[in-house]
C-alpha cells in the first residue's frame, strides 16, 4: 500500500515538472504563444521569451532568453535586449475600440443610475406632497385590512420620506 502511494506521488511530481517545460514566444502578430514544443523556424530567436532548461538537480525550469547572464557560451548578446515588439496598427485599433465600448457601457450605466435616482426623487416628492395635503391616507396591512393613518403614523412616514428626498434629490 505504501509503495503504491509513493508511486502515485512520484508520477504526479514528474507530471508537474514536465508541465513547467513550456516555451513562450511572440508570433508574427505580436501575441504571446505558450507551448510545450519549440516554435518553428519562422520565429526569430529574438521573439522567443522563455524556454525550458534543466537545473543541476535535473528539474526543468524557465530560463529567460533575454537575460545576458544565462546566455550560452559563444553567443553574443545585443546591447538592448528589452525592446518591445513593434505595435500592430490593427491591434491598437481594436484596443481603442474595446476601450471606447467599455467607456460607453460605463457612461450608459451612469446615465441609467442617474435616471433611476431622478425617478425616485420625483416619487418621493409626490408622496410628500400627498402627505402634506392634509387628506386622509389609508393603508392596507398584510391581512388586507384597510386602516387610516393616525397623526403619529403620518409624522413617521413624512420623516421617512424626508430622508429619502435628502438622500436622492441632491
Strand content: 15-25%
Number of β-strand runs: 6
Shape: elongated
Q: Strands of the biggest beta sheet: in what spatial order?
A: 2-1-3-4
Show unreliable segments: 67-82
- Along the chain, the helix and strand elements come as HEEEEHEEH
Tally of individual helices: 3
- N-end to C-end Cα span: 72 Å
Largest sheet: 4 strands, antiparallel
Which terms would index this structure?
single chain, alpha+beta, 3 helices
What would your notes on this structure say?
- 47% of the residues lie in helices and 15% in strands.
- The protein has helices spanning 2-19, 89-132, 151-168; strands spanning 23-26, 32-35, 48-54, 60-64, 138-140, 146-148.
- It is α+β, with helices and mostly antiparallel strands and 170 residues long.
- Residues 67-82 have low confidence and may be disordered.
- It has 3 helices and 6 strands, in the order H-E-E-E-E-H-E-E-H.
- The protein has a 4-stranded antiparallel sheet with strand order 2-1-3-4, with no helix packed on it.
- The protein starts with a helix and ends with a helix.
Summarize the model shown.
The protein is built from 3 helices and 6 strands, in the order αββββαββα.
Draw up the topology in text:
Elements: H1 2-19, E1 23-26, E2 32-35, E3 48-54, E4 60-64, H2 89-132, E5 138-140, E6 146-148, H3 151-168
Antiparallel strand pairs: 1-2, 1-3, 3-4, 5-6
Helix pairs in contact: 2-3
Amino acid at each position: 500500500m505504501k509503495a503504491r502511494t509513493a508511486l502515485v506521488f512520484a508520477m504526479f511530481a514528474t507530471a508537474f515538472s514536465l508541465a513547467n517545460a513550456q516555451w513562450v514566444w511572440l508570433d508574427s502578430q505580436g501575441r504571446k504563444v505558450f507551448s510545450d514544443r519549440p516554435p518553428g523556424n519562422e520565429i526569430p530567436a529574438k521573439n522567443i521569451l522563455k524556454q525550458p532548461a534543466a537545473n543541476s538537480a535535473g528539474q526543468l525550469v524557465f530560463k529567460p532568453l533575454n537575460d545576458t547572464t544565462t546566455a550560452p557560451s559563444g553567443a553574443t548578446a545585443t546591447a538592448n535586449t528589452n525592446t518591445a515588439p513593434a505595435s500592430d496598427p490593427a491591434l491598437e485599433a481594436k484596443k481603442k475600440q474595446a476601450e471606447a465600448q467599455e467607456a460607453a457601457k460605463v457612461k450608459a450605466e451612469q446615465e441609467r443610475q442617474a435616471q433611476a435616482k431622478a425617478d425616485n426623487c420625483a416619487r418621493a416628492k409626490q408622496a410628500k406632497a400627498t402627505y402634506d395635503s392634509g387628506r386622509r391616507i389609508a393603508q392596507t396591512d398584510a391581512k388586507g385590512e384597510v386602516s387610516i393613518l393616525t397623526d403619529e403614523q403620518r409624522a413617521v412616514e413624512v420623516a421617512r420620506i424626508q430622508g429619502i428626498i435628502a438622500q436622492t434629490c441632491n
